[in-house]
Amino acid sequence: MSSPAQSQFSPRTAIVTASDSGIGKATAVALAQAGMDIGITWHSDQQGGEETAEEVRALGRQAFVAQLDTTDLEGCGDVIDSLAEQLGGVDVFVNNAGTGDNAPVLEMTLEQWRHTVSADLDGAFVCIQRAARRMVAAGRGGRIIGITSVHEHQPRVGSGAYDAAKHGLGGLLKTAAIELGQHQITVNAVAPGEIATPMTGQTDEDPTGTERPGIPLGRPGDAWEIASVVAFLASPAASYVTGASWPVDGGMLQMGPHGGSHIESNAWREG
């Protein structure tokens, strides 16, 4: 039995950025499984985007595909608008696109800094704003979900630009949650830990056999484990969840800011 608040929102359309592989692809398919038509974007892997579309269509849903470069601040919002037009609206927007230039603060170039912050924060703002405006105009409520990182919450050596961008994105999402609540639009973050995807050098592999002593659950995560949380936040069941950030990290954040894949021993478990 659903509550009246839940029944008021019934998502039919979703846009998932960077859905050509990894977390984005798994999320696009999970939302299609939940009954949504999907807007799919790719940055450099067009074939990957088309393969995601094939999986969505195999589930009986519509899929539309477009190239998206979130460092193109003049053009990236237009891509979101175009996909929304093709879909007939956007009930759910998942901001998944991002990148990272790693270098110590003393050595990072301004070009590296601007590339990461532009892609992960400036472009995210443009795309989220475009999606939110359409949701407000439609008057049906909506869901905005930003894929951040455990580094939204904890820094890591050598990741100054990435940490700053993800901290900033988390703040943007919280502010948007406050402002958009009156329109029955919820805004949340999902903060992955180490996930077996191409971004972490693991090509969508099964993570269960990979040992990670520095993560309490002892392994990396799977993209589907992120997608399932996103699918919940996009659903009517999450009608009273907004302004939250959901770490999906196997307990990594409980290890402090330097827990993670570089820890090679289980000695810490012995106290």
From TrEMBL:
This is Uncharacterized oxidoreductase YohF. GO terms for molecular function: oxidoreductase activity. The keyword NAD does not apply. Belongs to the short-chain dehydrogenases/reductases (SDR) family. SUPFAM superfamilies: NAD(P)-binding Rossmann-fold domains. The keyword Oxidoreductase applies. Keywords: Oxidoreductase. NCBIfam families: PRK12743.1.
